[in-house]
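About this split. The held-out portion is used to measure sequence recovery: a designer receives only the structure tokens and must propose an amino acid at every position. Recovery is the fraction of positions where the proposal matches the reference. Here is one held-out target exactly as it appears in the evaluation file.
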């Protein structure tokens, strides 16, 4: 059997980093972890090939080669998915589809031959055994959660790592919280399931063996969902491993805000090699936090929490939302002031979106406020429900927020705030490696940001300020300048 694994194309989004990747000659952020895990579950005897449409073209001859096409996708890849399905249909190759988009919106994809939904560790073996017996059916689902201690190592041999900036791995699934707008608990449950320490180390070792060096992203929904196991088992093992291997990777991940209350945990993460953490901060407006059930963010000084994390040696990237029912008309100025003060340079601010089957989606349906399915991209102005706030006010307020936050003056000012608040790892983590692509990124940034683009004054001011005030942070200064360029390009499209 010949299996072609296809990863559909992402549109240009905040997290695509498309404009930033050009500075380091990479085509996409990371290879598709889900499909590579599926490849490892498929029978060993099958021929397998991967086409990630974010780094290469999908040719008709690829489709003709295959007996079965496997597609995995998120909501944001919907347009490309539809295109791939149409091409498979015209060529007559059978499709197996799974992943978050198909699991939450399967009604839209009736033409797919086999819908293998929920967690593939459970549903895919059922499909494969039926296929072998000639009894495969259209629809596979489960209400069980997989024991990820048995999840195989992704089949890295299908990947050309030179095309990617980073590699994704996973230690846990699920989140103990239950925010109204989030589909994580729906897809992965509320009890965090974790891999064992040997498994994590084996996965790191498998990435190391490919020759890849650089950024590794733990894609966990909430990395600190099980703090005890992290502190007692996982992080000590990663600290030892990374030391033994002479610091081949830096790590980033996602975590909830109460990470700020656990200094010991942050210190261990930094010693293990973590340097960036994404936190869903959402809004400084208490009533809106109450509305969306984000209780962990309530009754705390959020700015203080962000600073605690930055002081420990972790850069905070933040998610922010406007458009809650409880948002007052002043929310736009409040968000701008709050984000500027926090020093969160990478601030992904979007309009609230109702993802299929979430609690928010169900509530809005009951209130007859749903307008259409979401695009999965909350920065594209395509609000999919009737907001409480006047629509025009919401859109113009949102445009004001993004045009202010990413204007060079404000963006570079925020980067400097971050650098003042941030404590570099220092003795906690030795072994930082300067990698060759840092040079090319630096020289390109000099040409593009320091000569060609209008922001050149702010770019040079940041670089000189960093050299004299925080010389150890020069890599961050260049990296964040490049990120800012990407974010401006993305948000500019929303403003045109
Ligand atoms: S904390 Fe984050 S991952 Fe967990 S439910 Fe809330 S938004 Fe989702």
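Reference sequence for scoring:
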């Amino acid at each position: 059997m010949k299996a072609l694994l296809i990863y559909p194309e992402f549109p240009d989004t905040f997290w695509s980093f498309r404009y930033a990747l050009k500075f380091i000659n990479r085509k996409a952020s990371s290879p598709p972890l889900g499909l590579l895990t599926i490849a490892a579950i498929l029978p060993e005897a099958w021929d397998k090939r991967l086409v990630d449409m974010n780094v290469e073209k999908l040719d008709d001859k690829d489709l003709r080669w295959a007996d079965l096409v496997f597609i995995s996708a998120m909501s944001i890849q919907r347009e490309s998915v539809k295109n791939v399905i149409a091409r498979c249909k015209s060529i007559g190759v059978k499709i197996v589809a799974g992943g978050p988009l198909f699991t939450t919106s399967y009604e839209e994809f009736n033409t797919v031959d086999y819908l293998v939904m929920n967690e593939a560790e459970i549903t895919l073996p059922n499909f494969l055994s039926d296929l072998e017996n000639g009894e495969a059916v259209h629809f596979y689902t489960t209400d069980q959660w997989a024991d990820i201690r048995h999840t195989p190592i992704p089949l890295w041999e299908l990947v050309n790592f030179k095309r990617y900036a980073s590699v994704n791995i996973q230690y846990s699934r699920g989140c103990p919280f239950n925010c109204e707008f989030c589909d994580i608990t729906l897809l992965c449950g509320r009890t965090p399931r974790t891999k064992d320490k040997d498994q994590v180390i084996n996965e790191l070792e498998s990435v190391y063996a490919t020759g890849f060096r650089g950024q590794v992203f733990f894609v966990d929904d909430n990395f600190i969902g099980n703090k005890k196991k992290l502190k007692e088992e996982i992080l000590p093992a990663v600290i030892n491993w990374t030391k033994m291997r002479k610091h081949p990777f830096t790590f980033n991940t996602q975590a909830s805000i109460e990470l700020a209350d656990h200094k010991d945990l942050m210190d261990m993460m930094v010693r293990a090699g973590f340097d960036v953490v994404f936190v869903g901060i959402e809004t400084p407006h208490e009533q809106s936090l109450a509305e969306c059930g984000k209780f962990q963010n309530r009754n705390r000084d959020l700015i203080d929490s962000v600073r605690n994390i930055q002081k420990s040696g972790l850069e905070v990237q933040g998610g922010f939302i406007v458009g809650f029912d409880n948002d007052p008309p002043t929310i736009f100025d409040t968000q701008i002031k709050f984000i500027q003060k926090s020093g969160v340079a990478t601030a992904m601010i979007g309009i609230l979106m109702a993802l299929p089957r979430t609690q928010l989606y169900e509530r809005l349906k009951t209130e007859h406020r749903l307008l259409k399915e979401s695009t999965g991209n909350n920065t594209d102005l395509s609000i999919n429900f009737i907001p409480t706030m006047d629509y025009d006010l919401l859109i113009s307020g949102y445009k004001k927020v993004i045009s202010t936050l990413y204007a060079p003056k404000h963006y570079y000012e925020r980067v400097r705030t971050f650098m003042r608040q941030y404590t570099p790892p220092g003795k906690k983590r030795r072994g930082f490696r300067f990698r060759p692509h840092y040079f090319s990124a630096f020289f390109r940034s000099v040409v593009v940001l320091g000569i060609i683009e209008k922001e050149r004054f702010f770019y040079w001011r940041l670089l000189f300020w960093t050299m004299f005030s925080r010389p150890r942070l020069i890599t961050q200064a260049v990296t964040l300048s490049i990120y800012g360029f990407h974010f401006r390009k993305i948000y500019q499209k929303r403003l045109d």
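Annotator remark: The CA atoms of residues 177 and 351 lie 21 Å apart.
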